[in-house]
Amino acid sequence: GICVLGSSNMDLVAFAERAPSLGETVMGTRFLTVPGGKGANQAIAAARAGGAVRMIGAVGGDNFGRALRGVLRASGVDDTALRETTEPTGIAHIVVDGGGSNAIIVIAGANGTVTSLSVHDEGIVTSSSVLLLQLELPIEAAIAGAAAAHRAGVRVILTPAPSRPIPDALFANVDLLAPNQHELADITGIRDPKTALVSLLEKVPAAVVTLGSEGCLYGARGLPPFHVPAPKVDAVDTTAAGDTFVGVLAVALAEGRDIVEALHRANAAAALSVQRAGASSSMPARDEIDAFLLR
Ligand code: ADP
């Protein structure tokens, strides 16, 4: 199965023609509360794609926490290792203007309490076949999770988002790094994706860079990098496209599919998700992915 060690947030999204400047009040047009957090998003994407998924993380004992748990469970994610803390559920406070640009404040809340793994958590990690990590929990948690997984031969996939320095203690135990173009440039300081990817292989044995509508670029030590194009679709909302991609990639690899087939499935699922609004609500079910690939 798949273990996700990661964040759960409630996204509070306010839409207005123009974002207010400091000291100013503007009238908005719409407000949404949307379950999110990269950890929860990847867990939901993987479960919807047919994976057996367990999520390690934390929420508060509040309405947002209960709502997040409800969405995870409804998608089939095992939330028994999602702890309830006295800190409030993490939130992302988002303002979206008429042009679609956004400004975001994230409050870690309960996510910030996940600084280590319990013995029970370690058991979940080591009995999985794939561990999914992102950088929205305290870095100590990711380091501990990756180390436990690596010792047990569990494949570790890291989404290096949001961008922050990655200690070698984490890099050392990552099997597959999955940045988007911006994160790749932040990590390597190199703009050209192919050149950056090759330089990344000094740190990790394999990497896949997502390229939006262009699909993805995969590279592994000792192999020439190759490109897997994305299906052509009309995108309406690319929120969580990257999380859908990684969640579905993990399921395909856990099922023993080869990397080329797994990347095709991940591209297909992400392309399906960008045609619908929302994060978790836009993620495709397994039969939709299968049908899309047969088209
Ligand atoms: P992120 O959402 O993390 O910024 P990307 O924008 O690179 O990541 O998108 C992740 C994946 O989603 C891509 O590799 C691709 O498979 C799919 N995707 C994103 N945008 C589109 C699009 N316009 N058309 C088709 N697929 C897309």
Automatic annotation (TrEMBL):
EC number: 2.7.1.15
Pfam families cross-referenced by the UniProt entry: PfkB
Cofactor list: Mg(2+)
Residues reported to bind substrate: 9-11, 37-41, 136, 243
Keyword Magnesium recorded: yes
Catalytic activity, as annotated: D-ribose + ATP = D-ribose 5-phosphate + ADP + H(+)
Residues that hold ATP according to the record: 180, 210-215, 242-243, 267
Enzyme category, top tier: transferase
Activity control: Activated by a monovalent cation that binds near, but not in, the active site. The most likely occupant of the site in vivo is potassium. Ion binding induces a conformational change that may alter substrate affinity.
Pathway named in the protein's UniProt entry: Carbohydrate metabolism; D-ribose degradation; D-ribose 5-phosphate from beta-D-ribopyranose: step 2/2
Annotated Gene3D superfamilies: 3.40.1190.20
Compartmental location: Cytoplasm
Residue positions binding K(+): 237, 239, 273, 276, 278, 282
This protein's UniProt keywords: ATP-binding, Carbohydrate metabolism, Cytoplasm, Kinase, Magnesium, Metal-binding, Nucleotide-binding, Potassium, Transferase
Co-factor: note: Requires a divalent cation, most likely magnesium in vivo, as an electrophilic catalyst to aid phosphoryl group transfer. It is the chelate of the metal and the nucleotide that is the actual substrate.
Domain (Carbohydrate kinase PfkB) ranges: 2-285
The UniProt record lists the keyword tRNA processing: no
Active site residues according to the UniProt entry: 243 (proton acceptor)
Family membership noted in the UniProt record: Belongs to the carbohydrate kinase PfkB family. Ribokinase subfamily.
Purpose: Catalyzes the phosphorylation of ribose at O-5 in a reaction requiring ATP and magnesium. The resulting D-ribose-5-phosphate can then be used either for sythesis of nucleotides, histidine, and tryptophan, or as a component of the pentose phosphate pathway.
Subunit structure comment from the entry: Homodimer.
Designated name of the protein: Ribokinase
Organism: Pendulispora brunnea
Lineage: Bacteria, Pseudomonadati, Myxococcota, Myxococcia, Myxococcales
Gene this chain is encoded by: rbsK
